[in-house]
Amino acid sequence: MKKRISLLLVVAMLISVFALFPATSTAVSEIIGDADLNGSVEAADASAVLRHVVGIDTLTGQALLNADANQNGSVDSQDASVILRYIVGIISSLPPTGEVIVTPPVTNTPKPTPTPTPTPNANLGDVDLNGDVQAADASAILRHVVKIIELSEASLANGDVTFDNSVDAADAARILRYVVKIITDLNVWPDPTAIPTLAPTPSPTPVPLNNDGIPAAGNSGLVVPNDDPNY
After folding, report:
1. Rounded CA gap, 133 and 135, in Å?
2. How far apart are the first and last CA of the chain?
3. Helix, strand, or coil (residue 215)
4. For residue 222, how far is the Cα from the chain centroid?
5. For the chain, what is the total number of helices (H) and then of strands (E)?
6. Alpha carbon separation from 16 to 8, 20, 210 (Å, rounded)
7. Residues 42, 134: contact at Cβ < 8 Å?
8. For residues 72 and 85, is the Cβ–Cβ distance under 8 A?
9. Cα angle for residues 62, 64, 66 (degrees, 5° grid)
10. DSSP 174
11. Fewer CB near the terminus (10 Å): N or C of the chain?
12. What's the CA gap between 215 and 112, in Å, rounded?
């Protein structure tokens, strides 16, 4: 009888211990837009999507599912755009529900090519002034564009990566292209493009003529067989 009471007491103690110390959850984030699985949606998630799109990194499993921010069944640059629009408050949920995302029409008028800056800006692209160029800098520009924050003069100077004396979505896009290594130097503008170089066509060698307009001896340009009796 005493043994049964002791056994029941041990079981009761074990139950109380498990109740006080529940098992730690190891659940993976299933938040739409959380491509880096850190539990929140940030500019770094848009960067992770772009790095996946251009082949620098590969998202798999739940990260790939979360990266499909517009829930259309595929992960592309549009998902990165949706994540950034969510971060700056243009849309209020992921995926967007009951909201129409209006993409501004693309104009055919190119931005004027500015005169190159004599002294390169070592801090170009560092909008948040933290000493590095990241997706958060592109996010800061977008937040400035939609009037959520106001950038300082130093931030605006660093954010004008298209050298047109204004900071807008085009600057944010170019910073993201730099972050995912599509371009390698923000101080080189416009962005270099690969132009094939054609080998020059050699000019024919002129054949000297005599006074009668006939090619001079030995310079007729004709190939004479060695077995020609007149050679």
Report:
1. 7
2. 131
3. strand
4. 60
5. 7, 0
6. 12, 6, 117
7. no
8. no
9. 70
10. H
11. N
12. 56
Residue 155 buriedness (CB in 10 A; 0-12 / 13-18 / 19+): buried
CA dist 80 and 4 (Å) reads 63
Contact 138, 129 (CB under 8 A): no
Beta carbons of 94 and 82 less than 8 angstroms apart: yes
Q: Report percent pLDDT > 90 for the chain.
A: 24
Q: How big is the CA angle at 48 (ends 46 and 53), to the nearest 5 degrees?
A: 95
Q: Look up residue 4 and give its two tokens.
A: 């049964």
pTM metric for this prediction: 0.47
Question: Token match 């995926």: residue?
Answer: 95
SS (H, E, C) 10-73: HHHHHHHHHHHCCCCCCCCCCCCCCCCCCCCCCHHHHHHHHHHHCCCCCCCHHHHHHHCCCCCC
- Residue listed under structure tokens 């080189």: 188
Tokens (6 digits) for 153: 């003069």
